[in-house]
């Protein structure tokens, strides 16, 4: 019997503002869509937090036994600067600045994104579609929305008619906004604007002569509006109605609001059952963002090469730090907080390492089954990872007490403790044990030490002290570090 039959998972649904019991549309199967990155720059730690939050969701759903189809897109076209309807395409702008093809920009930052998420031990999504790979589908859905009367063409561009939509639907249903308030708070349309109303948003934009990313369409040579790709790619791979849609809190409005409107307008169905929004990572109390420069890059974290940091931190420590906060809470990044997370992480991992050698007894003085259910209760409560981690520290206390012979466990309970700890730490939280060599700074230090030993060995050999030279080589080899002599000098491999 799959675990989900015994566990009642509740998810905080941004649409209702309440924790709701999770019931997928099809028993045993979950369709989940998460907005992916706009690949015009290196991802910062803020972006990573959101993707780690949804990796936790993906992992836990899988752990419960669901067959999950996780779709996360790559935005490689259509995202204009400042999320506005005007200005340059972010990718095209970068291509112009770097004097490369837009698709080179896309390739470079998609590779970076994958590498970084791999380092954080995020599982890859089941499908990772791109906006440029779905232009045809985007044109088709625009036609449908026009046919249903919810969009209009103006001067080669197509706009979603928000006022018309709001007559029979609620534009603002997700963000809790009222269209009247939005209208009252917006400025007049600029004279050159083709929209009927300032609230209308672009489904298709006619390309200005300088706009390099462009495709033919029935209306003009142009490009799709940013919100459209997610509607198209989620419905293509998950259906017109699916279970979970996620993204950062900052995407709730207008991006996700527009997604609901587009889906509802095209199909007459509410596309998403559970909307999940991950909260922001801040630095000095302000949102980490590319545009303001208030951010830290993962590579700076792994090397310690940033003034905010006193040292380097491994990806697993950073992941642990992030998961110690609830995904719906704001989390402030600081060197002290990471240092504290590192201590906690090692305490946890040290206890895990003790498990295989713990003594067993005829009776248990601790209730392991209850402890295990408390771990599930935490995760069932809207993926509450900080409470799960608190329970794992309860297990650390149990392990240390058994070690010190102040508590006892039967062989069966010990096995259950071990299996549960392993599955929660490694499968659900996705943490990895940090070894010295995985830690970049440590491996850099190690390389420096090996270089020094190579130098000392060369000196010894020059002085015909072959005994010392051989000893250095053999001792290094015994530790898995192999020296290779050649005409150019000595190199080593770890
Ligand atoms: P973008 O590439 O700008 O579309 O962002 C990719 C994802 O990162 C989106 O889901 C954003 O909501 C999310 N994001 C951006 N900044 C932060 C931040 N400071 N903390 C957490 N998530 C963020
Ligand atoms: Zn999206």
Automatic annotation (TrEMBL):
Its EC number is 6.1.1.16. Keywords: Ligase. It is an enzyme of class 6 (ligase). It comes from the Bacteria. This is Cysteine--tRNA ligase. It comes from Mesonia oceanica. The gene is cysS.
